[in-house]
Amino acid sequence: MIAPTKVVLDVVEDEARFVETAATAFVDACREAIAARGKFVVALTGGSTPVPVHRALGAAPWKDRIDWPRVHVVFGDERAVPPHDARSNFGAAKRDLIDHVPLPASNVHRMLGESTDLAAAARDYERALVELCDAKMDLIFVGLGKDAHIFSLFPGSPMIREEKSLVVAEIDPPMDPAVSRITFTPPMIDRAARVLGIATGAGKSEAVRRAVEDADDPSRVPAHLIRRARAARLLVDRAAASGSKTRG
Predict the structure, then answer these.
(1) In the chain, how many domains are there?
(2) Whole-prediction pTM
(3) What is the pLDDT of residues 113-145, one digit of tens each?
(4) Would you give the DSSP letter of residue 106?
(5) What is the CATH number of the domain that holds 200?
């Protein structure tokens, strides 16, 4: 486990600037990884926050700045639903981004949320990530929930203390929507080159405040896990930063 540090809070004025900053982070990390290793492995997040970012990356001019055949897309968590379900993180990313860029199908690595054995699906996903990149992401997007959860690690989850398995099943977690999940664990943050936490809107202001200002306690505030990252930023809009003392 990497010792926790302060989270860098990056506050922008509005959605346009939020999208520009997040898309720039994607492009910069992509170019750096491809120059160094010939491929870029990025973990996407679900929820409503990344939607405008995904749509921007899937359209000009952003999509033309990315060497898509060298990009590999993975997911930080997934709900136990089939890919066409409206609750599927993969399904949302497919509609908003993947379907609009020349990304080879073999470069999209989804979690099998529809599996009847989520624990086995989690183990299979971990093995696939190890084969792909030694399970070391070039960039992980991490969305903050209103309760300060990240991935599908809710406050009080025993998986927050997991140090060996990289991907696990969360069965019937107390989350909205109420459905079982497959999720990254904290060691995936340790292993990542970069982590970009994202949150927008006044509804996330308390989660952002707790993520930045509260004493380190990931079991109570899972967003504190971002503090373990080697290179981490928490990108928020002015509304999401409204409850924090350090608002940028």
Answers:
(1) 1
(2) 0.95
(3) 999 999 999 999 999 999 999 999 999 999 999
(4) G
(5) 3.40.50.1360
